[in-house]
Amino acid sequence: GTTLGASAAEKGRYFGTAVAGFKLSDNTYTTILNREFNMVTAENEMKMNATEPQQGRFSFSAADQIVNHARSRGMSVRGHTLAWHSQQPGWMESMSGSALRQAMLNHVTQVATYYRGKIHSWDVVNEAFADGSSGARRDSNLQRTGNDWIEAAFRAADAADPNAKLCYNDYNTDNWTHAKTQAVYNMVRDFKSRGVPIDCVGFQSHFNNDSPYVSNYRTTLSSFAALGVDVQITELDIEGASANTYRSVVEDCLAVARCNGITVWGIRDSDSWRSYQNPLLFDGNGQKKAAYNAVLTAL
Ligand code: XIL
């Protein structure tokens, strides 16, 4: 193929990007989006603070702009994200206990129901594990409602949209030897053994000098896949955008049958949440970088 999406499709994969809705009026941005990608993630518009700004009053117009842009052009959509400790609406940040648990489950149910049938994969729960060597859950208002909050969210999402793939998504879970990776692995193994409806694990894969790409990444992907879940690279960016590292990531995904696809976290370096790292495939002018050519060749 001559584009990322078409080449990935030839390998039975997708190639996606995060999209910021307010940039859809930028012609350079939208030209690249429509040409290169066949999967889209809303960078912020489907988060809890965007979709339920006031309790029980849902707001889908910003998300719908992205979903409709994608689906009307034959692109699929990753839903990001139904439950997360961050980017909660203010009303939820101040809640706790059973009221918070009920509000979280209602949010999952309402949003997943609204988009039923339109979402390829949902990040049902995002970033629930702690960094460092503890292997523990991250402390958060959601975690304090009880350790079963994650499985409760997955059951609610499954009831609302049984055909979407339901993913657990996190960062710094790329290195197989890290405690956080092992902790997520153990949770997924437990969920599969008890029939909790989980279909996939998302690896954000924000690679930088503090958490670099390591060659056991392929072992991580294949080990999770061996539990009976799909794996997806959901927010890829690489500090400095080494062409060799981008090539390795693509090769690792292609080497694992259950690796469904790769999403980069933005189009141009200037679109990146870490723009100072120049971590993406297109420069600020929308020109293809060496990393782009490495990815296209590896696909
Ligand atoms: C980031 C967005 O890119 C920023 O625009 C926003 O200010 C903060 O969130 N992990 C995630 C993403 O799951 O939702 C985050 O996106 C990046 C880290």
UniProtKB/TrEMBL annotation:
This is Beta-xylanase. One of its GO terms (biological process) is xylan catabolic process. Keywords: Carbohydrate metabolism, Glycosidase, Hydrolase, Polysaccharide degradation, Signal, Xylan degradation. Residues 1-298 form the GH10 domain. Its EC number is 3.2.1.8. It catalyses: Endohydrolysis of (1->4)-beta-D-xylosidic linkages in xylans. It is an enzyme of class 3 (hydrolase). Belongs to the glycosyl hydrolase 10 (cellulase F) family. GO terms for molecular function: endo-1,4-beta-xylanase activity; polysaccharide binding. The keyword Transport does not apply. The active site is at E235 (nucleophile). The keyword Ribonucleoprotein does not apply.
